[in-house]
Design goal:
Structural class: mainly alpha
Order of helices and strands: HH
Number of strands: 0
Strand content: under 5%
Shape: flat
Radius of gyration: 22 Å
Largest sheet: none
């Protein structure tokens, strides 16, 4: 019988993503989804939607900016650490 060869397993590979990056990615995805929703609501309802697309768009931009700024803050090395 043939014995299977010992191959390198991927079990020892460590996930290189930052521990808090999952919520940032989720926040960014929600922001882009809200941006698309604002675009489609504004295009489909024209003037009947009022300020809804505008507020949804500003909210989407806020979510994207919060996620991006927090990623930059975590990327800056902390001084005086052990």
């Amino acid at each position: 019988m043939l014995e299977p060869k010992a191959e390198r397993s991927d079990q020892g590979v460590v996930n290189k993503a930052a521990p808090g990056s999952k919520w940032r990615n989720t926040l960014m995805a929600i922001g882009f989804f809200c941006m698309l929703a604002a675009l489609f609501i504004g295009a489909s309802m024209k003037e009947a939607a009022g300020g809804v697309p505008k507020f949804l768009g500003f909210g989407a931009i806020a979510l994207i900016v919060i996620s991006g700024v927090w990623a930059l803050i975590e990327r800056i090395p902390r001084k005086g650490g052990p």
